[in-house]
Amino acid sequence: MNGETVMACIDAACAALKEHTDEIASLDQQIGDGDHIFNLLRGMEALLAVRAEIAAQPLGPALEIAASKVLSTVGGSSGPLFFSLLNGMAKASANNAMDVAGFARIFAAGVEAVGQRGKTGVGSKTMMDVLIPVAQRFEQLAAENAVSRTVLDTLPRVAEENMLATRDMLATKGRASFLGERSRGHIDPGARSSQIMIASVCARLAQHNGQGA
Ligand code: ADP
Ligand code: MG
């Protein structure tokens, strides 16, 4: 896992988000202000513009460059939150092995950083309702010595189940919380975009593994 793999993951996430632009825009129009997908796509374009710089680095520095680009380009609540995810992962990259257990810890560190930034955990109808269960299952799979194929098959399912579960939740954080009870009945846009990115990154990495990379 290095800067080239990071860029391959960014390409996959960007393509998947573009495919779901209208859907995510509409989710954020229902319980937010409609800008979520456009914030993310702006960040993605900025990352694609520094492809060579990211691809030339090892994992930690590549994630660090990506984090700072996201912070300077993605607006809304999600900019600083995705910065925290990438920056938390970048910091943890230095102290962890490049194996399933190491990646589980690196991802969990990123998710913990989002929690500190956004001051929330599960149950408030945000991206955390996807990120936390995925990080937890990742660490559980690592503790069971699961092979990467199992991890890459399982995590997208965990992400999807938990994304769908945000539909019935009451939003207590972010813009959607202003709606109170009216926030129920709509999937959280940040949960949906996070789930889409997790699914596309896992699919891309599974393809990489299949090629023996
Ligand atoms: P804004 O709400 O400022 O317009 P975005 O539209 O970019 O920002 O992002 C909205 C998403 O951010 C929500 O769908 C939710 O998933 C996530 N979010 C909002 N507040 C928080 C928070 N405190 N912690 C984690 N995620 C949050
Ligand atoms: Mg918004």
Characterization of this structure:
This protein has 213 residues and is mostly helical. It has a single domain, classed as DhaL domain (Serine Threonine Protein Phosphatase 5, Tetratricopeptide repeat, Alpha Horseshoe), CATH 1.25.40.340. 72% of the residues lie in helices and 0% in strands. It has 10 helices and no strands. Helix 1 (3-19) packs across helix 10 (189-210) and helix 3 crosses helix 5. The longest helix has 22 residues, at 189-210. The termini are close together.
Please describe the structure with a list of short key phrases separated by commas or semicolons.
mainly alpha, Serine Threonine Protein Phosphatase 5, Tetratricopeptide repeat, 0% strand, binds magnesium ion, 213 residues, single chain, binds adenosine-5'-diphosphate
Bin the helical content: over 70%
* CATH level-four homologous superfamily name: DhaL domain
- Shape, please? globular
The CATH topology is what? Serine Threonine Protein Phosphatase 5, Tetratricopeptide repeat
Number of strands: 0
Give a list of the ligands.
Answer: adenosine-5'-diphosphate, magnesium ion
Distance between the termini: 9 Å
- Please, what is the oligomeric state? single chain
CATH C-level category: Mainly Alpha
Main sheet summary = none
Which blocks of ≥5 consecutive residues have pLDDT under 50? none
- Count of individual helical segments: 10
Mean pLDDT: 97
